[in-house]
């Protein structure tokens, strides 16, 4: 279908926190739905050069933290001795540069798929932002004033784009936008992509999903297992613990909301919550028998402990589901978690620490 934008086609700005939570480039089902809306001419997308940088930076740092030990010669030697695989010798600046190249390119490609108009932060007069900073207004009316400069500059870019005939919708779960949006003309705020889809009139009565999802239980478990492996879990109660393996035992699908496609015959987007029961195996230093170094005032463990525990997680998800001509669900095309933050789990029951 040919794209048909109008003078009243809303402009949508996706804040970095929303893009990041939708999944690594090229994004999950929610970003795919935004691409559909752009292709159908129902919205146009705005971004800033700083927003693109923020998104890429998040993924660069996350991956760097996960694999930075590869830069240590002793780590590479241990891996080679245990597995027979020789890891490349990369210094940390080289590793970070490689990750930067990967995510700079993939993030740019994602925004290209959204046909996003990139606004330049440099085109904002610094005085417009610093006057608000000096007066303690707008983004600078609360605590953490210095942290608000990126949002303040982005908002000045968006104000130039907004008009009665071209309203701007900001999608952000950052509460710092609440005040500035309330005093701006022709700019509105929604807190998530599902809220955006609802505001655009795309929410629909969900088809008979429960019977369908019951038949897809094995696939759902597999998809959730893949996401958990990519997502990673961290211990909230044991220092330096590592989660070695995650085995998903069951997934219970809770409340779902469906959004109709931009064109008949395309997949529907479904967002909701799942309850996951899983078995995790873990390893951590034996802190109970660690030696105390009085000079450095630290504990020095000499051996590790391993174990297993059952955990339960509540996770927000987005699914893309293919439907037939009658609108009945046929296939789960994708499932992604709607949160990029680390998930912390408790490895030992609280009474062990009494």
UniProtKB/TrEMBL annotation:
InterPro entries found in the cross-reference section: DUF4935
DUF4935 domain segment(s): 12-177
Protein name, as recorded: DUF4935 domain-containing protein
Organism of origin: Sphingobium cupriresistens
């Amino acid at each position: 279908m040919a794209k048909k934008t109008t003078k009243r086609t809303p402009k949508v700005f996706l804040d970095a926190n929303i893009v990041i939570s939708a999944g690594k480039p090229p994004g999950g089902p929610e970003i795919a739905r935004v691409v559909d809306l752009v292709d159908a001419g129902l919205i146009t997308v705005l971004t800033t050069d700083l927003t693109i940088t923020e998104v890429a930076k998040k993924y660069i740092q996350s991956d760097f933290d996960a694999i930075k030990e590869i830069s240590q010669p002793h780590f590479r030697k241990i891996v080679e001795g245990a597995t027979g695989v020789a890891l490349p010798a990369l210094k940390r600046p080289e590793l970070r540069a490689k990750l930067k190249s990967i995510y700079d390119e993939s993030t740019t490609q994602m925004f290209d798929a959204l046909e996003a108009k990139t606004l330049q932060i440099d085109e904002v007069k610094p005085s417009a932002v610093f006057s608000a900073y000096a007066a303690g207004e707008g983004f600078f009316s609360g605590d953490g004033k210095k942290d608000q400069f990126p949002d303040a500059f982005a908002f000045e870019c968006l104000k130039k784009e907004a008009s009665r005939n071209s309203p701007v919708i900001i999608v952000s779960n950052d509460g710092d936008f609440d005040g500035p949006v309330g005093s701006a003309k022709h700019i509105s705020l929604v807190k998530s992509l599902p809220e955006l889809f609802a505001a655009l009139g795309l929410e629909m009565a969900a088809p008979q999903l429960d019977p369908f999802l019951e038949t897809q239980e094995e696939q759902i478990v597999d998809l959730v297992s893949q996401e958990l492996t990519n997502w990673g879990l961290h211990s909230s109660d044991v220092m330096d613990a590592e989660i070695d393996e995650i085995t998903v035992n069951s997934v219970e699908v809770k409340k779902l909301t469906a959004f109709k496609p931009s064109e008949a015959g395309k997949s529907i987007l479904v967002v909701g919550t799942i309850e996951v029961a899983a078995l995790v195996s873990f390893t951590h230093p034996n802190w109970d028998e660690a030696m105390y170094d009085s000079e450095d005032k630290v504990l020095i463990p000499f051996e590790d402990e391993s174990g297993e525990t059952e955990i339960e997680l509540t996770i927000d998800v987005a699914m893309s589901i293919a439907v037939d001509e009658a609108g009945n669900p046929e296939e789960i095309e994708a499932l992604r978690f709607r949160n990029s933050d680390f998930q912390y789990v408790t490895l030992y029951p609280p009474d062990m620490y009494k």
